Amino acid sequence: MSLKLPVAAGATAPQEHSPVGLFAIETWGCQMNVHDSEKMAGALIRLGYRPTKDLHRADVILLNTCAIREKASHKIYTRLGRLRRLKLRNPGLLIGVTGCVAQLEGEAIFRRAPFVDLVLGPRGLSALPELLEKARHRRSAHLEPLEDSLTYPFETAVRSHEVKAFVTVMEGCDKRCTFCVVPATRGKQEYRALQHVLQEVRFLVEKGYREVELLGQNVNTYRSGDTDFAGLLLAVDGVDGIERVRFTTSHPLHFDDSIMDAMAAGRNICPSIHLPVQSGSDRILRLMRRGYHRKRFLDRVERIRTTIPGCTLSTDIIVGFPGEDEDDFAQTMSLLEEVRFERIFSFLFSARPGTPAENLPIGTSLTVRKGRLARLQGRQMEIQAEIHADMVGERVMVLVEGNARTGEGVLLGRTPGSHLVHFSGHDGMIGRILPVDVSSCTATALYGSVSAECPSP
Ligand code: SAM
Q1: How far apart are CA 172 and CA 123, in angstroms?
Q2: What's the burial of 264, exposed, middle or buried (CB within 10 Å: 0-12/13-18/19+)?
Q3: How confident is residue 32, by pLDDT bands cut at 50, 70 and 90?
Q4: 20 to 30 A Cα–Cα from 222, which one of 101, 116, 171, 366?
Q5: pLDDT at res. 144
Q6: Whose Cα sits closest to atom 12 in ligand 1?
Q7: Is 315 in the pocket of ligand 1 (CB under 6 A)?
Q8: Confidence category of residue 10, pLDDT binned at 50, 70, 90
């Protein structure tokens, strides 16, 4: 699942002059990368650096990268090309490449962009201070091995939201999906101890956060002693003061009944599940080595809908996997009709280095594949518009996350089902859960006003 890029971590921390220097982090990719940037921002602040949005003033710039698709990897080099100009003007500037491209390409980054000072993979974040120190003494610093990053000092992370916070529950991935580079970039699957997760959630509640999102590549395979993912959800939900619990990403193969029962039984576990299906065709699912069939996926969806009424579903879909023909694609389209996801993230297949699908013959032209993607996205927009239109006239409970960029006095927040809602209000409403009457919609958002019956703050 991808976020728009780039996101500046640490931008909410106070901007002040510092004896050590100023830093900026640009983040590409998924929520895990966003949270890694929050952890790195915390480490830099502990060293005495302060964040800046002005790259011309920065002493350290880190690009926290995503390797999921080729385009994302290429963009890093274009971005580095631009940063090189800053370095020519300010030779003291340290430039680092972190994240998945750093892990995948390692030393090759120094060869292609010799002005880069440090390269650090996503499982070695604790080495950032040491690498910076080396880089300051003009030694290019690179950390190759994947390290355990499950015991990081969570208190120091500089969160990019005021109201909701990410909590890592696992690192890495042991799946072997033929298209995916993640096992190579994020390493072996490891879980964070339950007590450590709960400690962080309690800490966040004390700091005023209302919502936590549990993060990992396949969170629903979670294990800590006797506690499985259903147990983890209930334990987090049981923390006093937590108002919303979310999680991502779940693997369809492991989305067991016990998880649905926990969601139905919980007080504040949001009825919203991201369940990446990737394709509606069994033949393609087998080639992708996903470990489930279309029928299993649809069975999970039906169980979710009967166990957790009103539960919303989102998914990831890859279009144009090698060998996908018109019939396979038709099955993906029909799955879209059957499930009617609230949201999808859809991508053209991108061959990634070292993956089993890298050299498979694609079999269809780019024009055909792009045409399929456009059809999929077009139909999904219609479905979303229909789902949203059905919600006009409803009253929804919105956790107010902040100001919308669309105009003065416009706030945005989410329903428990993760629908994005815009409405007018003031800053004092941020962090509150408010009833909003939905009066209009688009395919991507709901619009409304705070219910007249809601007591003013
Ligand atoms: N762990 C999740 C799972 O296995 O379902 C996937 C996480 S991945 C970071 C996010 C999404 O990127 C995937 O679900 C997939 O749709 C997409 N993706 C991964 N590799 C891809 C590739 N080689 N080409 C296109 N899309 C890809």
Answers
A1: 9
A2: middle
A3: very high
A4: 101
A5: 55
A6: 1
A7: no
A8: very low
| Residue carrying the six token digits 């952890």 | 39
298: nearest Cα among 270, 331, 338, 330? 338
Do the Cβ atoms of 200 and 242 come closer than 8 Å?
Answer: no
CA distance 269 to 244: 6
The answer, yes or no, to whether any atom of ligand 1 lies below 6 A from the CB of 344, is no
Residue 452: other Cβ atoms inside 10 A: 7
What pLDDT, on a 0 to 100 scale, did the predictor assign at position 151?
A: 76
Question: Are 379 and 336 a contacting pair, CB within 8 Å?
Answer: yes
Whether ligand 1 lies within 6 angstroms of the CB of 217 is answered as: yes
Ligand 1 close to Cβ of residue 362 (< 6 A): no
Report the separation in Å between the CA atom of 233 and the middle of ligand 1, taken as the mean of its atom positions. Answer: 24
Cα separation, 204 vs 88, in Å, equals 41
Listed residue (99, 46, 74) closest to 118, CA to CA: 99
Ligand 1 atom with the shortest distance to the CA of 217: 1
Write the pLDDT tens digit of every residue in 368-417.
999 999 999 999 999 999 999 999 999 999 999 999 988 789 999 999 99
